[in-house]
Amino acid sequence: MTILHLALATDWEAAQTAGEYRVSTLGRTLEQEGFIHACADHTQLQGVIHRFYRDVGQALVLLTIDPAGLDVRMETPADSTETFPHIYQPLPLHAVVSATAFPLG
């Protein structure tokens, strides 16, 4: 099983230097949000893209993450009926199975 996270390419590049990824979502850090947002599958990812990323003018990277050994909790936000994986720790680079350029167009 894997989970997915859409990252700005610049944030992913910074993580390569830092040794871990600490961005929760667009413009918010792990510290600000309390967790890193993720998606359970590509269908859920498409909904997230439609709601939050369709107007992003920066390069994106799709992170495919192996959640084994991570503090991942399946939670349903108050404004949703969907359950999403939330990562309650910095994301170690070794947990990222792949990082693929993700064009929105």
TrEMBL record:
Domain of life (superkingdom): Bacteria
Keyword tags: Transferase
Record-linked InterPro entries: DUF952
Transmembrane spans: none
Tagged with keyword Nuclease: no
One Gene Ontology MF term: transferase activity
Pfam families tied to this protein: DUF952
Xref: SUPFAM superfamilies: ADP-ribosylation (SSF56399)
Keyword RNA-binding: no
Identification of the protein by name: Glutathione S-transferase
